[in-house]
Design goal:
Elements (H helix, E strand, L loop, with lengths): L9 H8 L6 E4 L6 H8 L3 E6 L2 H10 L7 E5 L5 H7 L5 E7 L4 H5 L25 H7 L2 H10 L7 H13 L5 H11 L9 H13 L2 H15 E11 L2 H16 L3 E3 L9 H6 L7 E7 L1
Parallel strand pairs: 1-2, 1-4, 2-3, 4-5
Antiparallel strand pairs: 5-7, 6-7
Bound molecules: S-adenosylmethionine.
Length: about 290
């Protein structure tokens, strides 16, 4: 399934679920179907959920093995309880969440996720959402932008970038990834030692457009509630904002007596995996087992 997305921590995450033949699993972030395909290969039944129609369409075309064991559903994983019910997946023994964007999002210029690819400033993973990144960049106040870039992009030096955005949009609305990337690079040139500030500004916008952190906060307790006793929740995150949410939620679940944390420290990709797939470098897998 490589062309859509290279799965990260594929074996580790599916091993964590301890797949049993004929049992029910939910993959809340279907993407290119890499993890789903592996669960199916090991004999599990899967409900594959994604809120991006492209992912569902891709998997519908690609997955040929054990098709009778796979149900696909479009939706936000924050509604995992309702999605499971609607699709008859209530006795679930494993849930996987591989958070964030897929390579398909970055690689497809028209989706507007990459500052290196000219396209509309969109960034909606769920194409039915109303607000695009361009809407935010053209209406947010200085203060709102500062809060956004600091909290969700962890970009501490955004003031000159914001001034430059404000001046540019007084002349005409900022509509493309290229326009925004250029505005950023003019005032915040990339130094050799630092990563590109455009990475952090684009990350902040993407997280806000898709309300990513709130969806994650909402899904975790629902996922644990949905699991059968002994069932496992495996979450792969890609930056500290997400990992912190997962880590604290798991600690809370443990102290409430809901189960135990299997990964005292997160599982990270091997060097070999990172060499093969640069995007894996920041991945962290945490596993919780329901009592
Ligand atoms: C990292 S990719 C998953 C890749 C997949 N595990 C694979 O191996 O191919 C994340 C996917 O989750 C989807 N996604 C992100 N947040 C979501 C949410 N809140 N609800 C449903 N799908 C979501 C994205 O559209 C994307 O396709």
């Amino acid at each position: 399934m490589g062309e859509y997305h290279i799965s990260v921590l594929l074996q580790e995450a599916v091993d964590a679920l301890g797949v049993q033949v004929g049992k029910n699993y939910i993959d809340g972030t279907l993407g290119g179907g890499g993890h789903t395909g592996e669960i199916l290969r090991r004999g599990g039944r899967v409900l594959g959920v994604d809120f991006d129609e492209d992912a569902l369409e891709y998997v519908r075309k690609q997955l040929t093995i054990n098709n009778s064991q796979l149900t696909l559903a479009r939706g936000n994983f924050k509604d995992i309880d309702a999605l499971a019910k609607e699709n008859g997946f209530e006795n679930v023994v494993g849930i996987l969440l591989d958070i964030g964007v897929s390579s398909h999002h970055f690689d497809t210029a028209e989706r507007g996720f990459s500052f290196q690819k000219e396209g509309p400033l969109d960034m909606r993973m769920d194409q039915t959402l109303n607000v695009k990144a361009a809407d935010l960049i053209n209406i947010l106040t200085k203060g709102e932008m500062y809060e956004l870039f600091t909290k969700l992009g962890e970009e501490w030096g955004s003031r000159p970038i914001i001034e430059s955005i404000i001046s540019a949009r007084q002349i005409k609305p900022i509509e493309t990834t290229g326009e925004l990337a250029q505005i950023i690079s003019k005032v915040a040139p990339r130094s050799k030692s630092e990563s590109n500030p455009a990475t952090r500004i684009f990350q902040a916008l993407r997280i806000a457009v898709n309300d990513e952190l709130n969806s994650l906060r909402e899904v975790l307790p629902k996922a644990v509630a949905l699991l059968a006793p002994g069932g496992r929740l495996a979450v792969i995150s890609f930056h500290s904002l997400e990992d912190r949410i997962v880590k604290h939620a798991f600690k809370d679940f443990e102290s409430e007596g809901l189960g135990k944390i299997i990964t005292k420290k997160p599982i990270i990709p091997t060097e070999q995996e990172v060499v093969h797939n640069k995007r894996a470098r920041s991945a962290k897998l945490r596993i919780f087992e329901k009592l």
